[in-house]
Amino acid sequence: QVLGVIGHYNSGQTLAAMETYKDLPIIVITPTASETSISQRGYRNFFRVNASDAVQARVDAGFLVNTLGAQRVAVVNNDTEYGVGLGREITAELQKLGAEVVLTRQVTEGQERYDAEVAAIQSAAPDAIFYAGYEIEAPYLRVALAQAGVTAPMLASDGAFLSATIDEAGGAAEGMYVSAFAPSPQTVADSQWIKEYQAV
User: Fold this and answer.
1) Which helix H or strand E contains 147, and what residues bound it?
2) Using CA atoms in the order 181, 99, 97, 62, what is the torsion angle rounded to 10 degrees?
């Protein structure tokens, strides 16, 4: 008997599956699907433990503008529901903070060559670059930017928060930022829970 589902890997898969799960007597918990609208569709059995795109966009825009001091930002996203949604959300958040989005570009999921995108970024001359996509694209974009001499800092979304990003980018990963929801255990658990967890 199936009591629940932990998944799916991304927002597109989760949205498709929820059309079946919504009518079943099971609990669905996603650790990764971040599309904001999933939790706004009235699914009574759906729970999310990761940050939504709306939350990530707000925090990342604040980091770019308030911490890095960026006023001109290039936004690049892949063509998945995740990338498109997050690209749209961060563009709006950057504009709320008074930053100018000087370039928006969409790439293909799994794309490995970025000559055209790098040329467009160089022409736009941003203070920072935000990438909304996965670890299968982010390192290649980072390497292409480094090889072209682009020094503007790059912040990749949580879809690139995997060791593969560093492995594929190699030395070009130095100085790259990646967004991730990783709260300190001390803020979400009391000392007794931490003690018992460490004893296992």
Assistant:
1) helix 138-147
2) 20
In contact, 86 and 34? CB cutoff 8 Å: yes
Is the Cβ–Cβ distance between 94 and 73 less than 8 Å? yes
The alpha carbon of 58 is separated from its chain's Cα centroid by a whole number of angstroms, namely 12
Give the closest residue to 57 by CA, choosing from 131, 109, 128: 131
HEC string of 5-20 equals EECCCCHHHHHHHHHH
- The string of pLDDT tens digits covering residues 51-95 is 999 999 999 999 999 999 999 999 999 999 899 999 999 999 999
Evaluate if pTM is beyond 0.85: yes
Section 189-196 average pLDDT = 79
The residue to which tokens 């296992």 are assigned: 200
As a whole number of angstroms, the distance between CA 113 and CA 166 comes to 17
82-94: burial string, b at 16+ Cβ within 10 Å, e else: bbbbbbbbbbebb
Q: Could you tell me which residues are beta bridge partners of residue 193?
A: none
Q: Which long-range contacts (CB under 8 A, 24 or more apart) does 93-99 make?
A: 93/57, 93/58, 93/60, 93/61, 93/62, 94/61, 94/64, 94/65, 94/130, 96/61, 97/61, 97/62, 97/65, 97/66, 98/65, 98/71, 99/61, 99/64, 99/65, 99/70, 99/71, 99/72, 99/73
Map out the domains of the chain with their CATH numbers: 4-48 (no CATH), 53-178 (3.40.50.2300)
